[in-house]
């Protein structure tokens, strides 16, 4: 039986198109023409010897065989990328001080840090999980080398754009209707000020003429999730890091105003051109693109050489 050797470039185009929901977007992200990606997918289907796609409205959806191949493609690409990282910097040593916004921290920590430390055993990462404004200040003052944060501040504080994500009203599912149709002000669960998402929520309600009250306020995102799940009030976040007990609420069905998008950005300490920081930045950039494109990085064991602080 002839052995099939799948090409990694083709598998990357295949997986990226699924992550982004569009092969035109995948072509743009990968620096290829749409016709070149189409030719890759046609060749991939010929190599596989099975139908990978089926018509779904105006687009394409995966068949069972396509879903199976996608799982293997992700594993092969992850191994390839980890090997490339290892070869680029296996001998690199030093420390990187990384800041992560709470929402993305949990989603990125295990996968990114685990892969990075396995590829760079002599490196050390000190991680600070904090609010976006704090992270931006710490990068600006040289206390952090790299940070991933919501970009909702002044123009001069903006970093490298990574993704634009929709904001959602979040609630405990069935209790949302009771919250929005009750006789009193709409109860909200909010992070303590200053908080960009807090301002977005209250401004949207004020502009819509909807009365609201702060039913719960905390500096902790985990406390916010717990209060929302308990039915104390609604909040707004992206889908990243959303606990299973909570769900996005349809604004139209519940008389709520539509919400804007928010940008996620990478901030880097001025003058830091170290190879170690650059490699970590590349890995974070890739992981954020996966999160933003409906995919989720595969989990890996957390790294022992990374230290975590809440600051």
TrEMBL record:
Which is a Pfam family this sequence falls into? HTH_1
Q: Where is the signal peptide?
A: none
- The transmembrane residues are none
Q: Which UniProt keywords apply?
A: DNA-binding, Transcription, Transcription regulation
Q: Which InterPro entries match?
A: LTTR (IPR050176), LysR_HTH_N (IPR000847), LysR_subst-bd (IPR005119), WH-like_DNA-bd_sf (IPR036388), WH_DNA-bd_sf (IPR036390)
Q: Would I find Transcription among this entry's keywords?
A: yes
What residue stretches are annotated with the HTH lysR-type domain?
A: 6-63
Q: Which family does it belong to?
A: Belongs to the LysR transcriptional regulatory family.
What name has this protein been given in UniProt?
LysR family transcriptional regulator
Source species of the chain: Massilia antarctica
